[in-house]
Amino acid sequence: MSYFILNDGKQLPDIGLGTVHIQGATGLESILTALDAGYRLIDTSTNYHNEGMVGAAIRRTPISRHEILVTSKLPGLAHQYDMAIKLIQESLYRTGLDYFDIYLIHWPLPKRDLYVEAWQALIDAQKFGLIRSIGVSNFTREHLNRIIAETGVTPAINQIERHPYFNNLETVRANNELGILTQAWSPFGRDKLNVLEDPVIKELALKYDKEPSQIVIRWNLQQNVQPIVKAASAKHQLANLDVLDFELQVADIEKINALDRGEAGRIAGQDPDEYEEFE
Ligand SMILES: NC(=O)c1ccc[n+]([C@@H]2O[C@H](COP(=O)([O-])OP(=O)(O)OC[C@H]3O[C@@H](n4cnc5c(N)ncnc54)[C@H](OP(=O)(O)O)[C@@H]3O)[C@@H](O)[C@H]2O)c1
Known about the structure:
Layout: E1 3-5, E2 11-13, E3 16-18, H1 24-37, E4 41-43, H2 51-60, E5 69-74, H3 81-95, E6 100-105, H4 115-127, E7 131-137, H5 141-151, E8 157-161, H6 169-178, E9 181-185, H7 199-208, H8 212-221, E10 225-230, H9 234-241, H10 250-257
Parallel strand pairs: 3-4, 3-10, 4-5, 5-6, 6-7, 7-8, 8-9, 9-10
Antiparallel strand pairs: 1-2
Helix pairs in contact: 1-2, 1-9, 3-4, 4-5, 7-8
């Protein structure tokens, strides 16, 4: 595997494993096969209702805890400072871990307007030793500028929606300018957008003799973006790691960039300025 280096000096593997809808005993088996296949970054959240399962998999695998990175995320109900600190502690009890490697504010919820307070809680939770690297998710340039201006602390990561139909290049640029690593969520458009069936992606898969999924992963890696890919099946997990033996030509990256549909390309209901979740 190759690595990304965060602005706090920490090192991340090139691909993270998403865990939406991976739960319970079958979920645990999925995480174990992923760890066995070589994944070292597991992306969970209080809102995914699977932090306990992720913690159980980490206790069960023979791989050392120190070789595995776990991300979790602060839900909307806990943006208020004291609630955020307690929720992070509760999430740690639930996982059975002593610390999170990465912890993100899940959504900015600008209508609620508590994200600066939530960010201060993450800054302090890092000082208390509960978290190694702190970041945000679904933050626009405006949200990023505000938390940096009001706290003086720049996030290490901004995890955002990004796939060929919504490449989110404006936020990727903002992240790059601020020295923040972009993580791409729903890199395949989940099971909603049929990104992997797109004729351009399929044509490139034929050209490079790879799978459509591998083309989309390379498109991210070659633009300095870390894809967080959900794959429950062992077959998909292995395929998504097999991406280091080829490079997309610049013209082909541009071809994929040209698939962008702007705001219309987003997964429905995921605009960070509008999105609300208070549970
Ligand atoms: N921060 C946020 O607000 C936010 C929002 C959404 C998601 N996320 C994170 O990002 C992760 C990924 O996003 P996502 O779960 O929405 O969707 P995704 O990764 O875009 O797509 C997952 C789907 O792709 C399939 N797949 C995986 N590898 C494949 C391959 N090689 N060939 C064909 N199909 C393949 C999976 O099938 P199988 O599972 O059957 O293998 C699953 O149906 C999430 O799990 C979560 O951790 C974060």
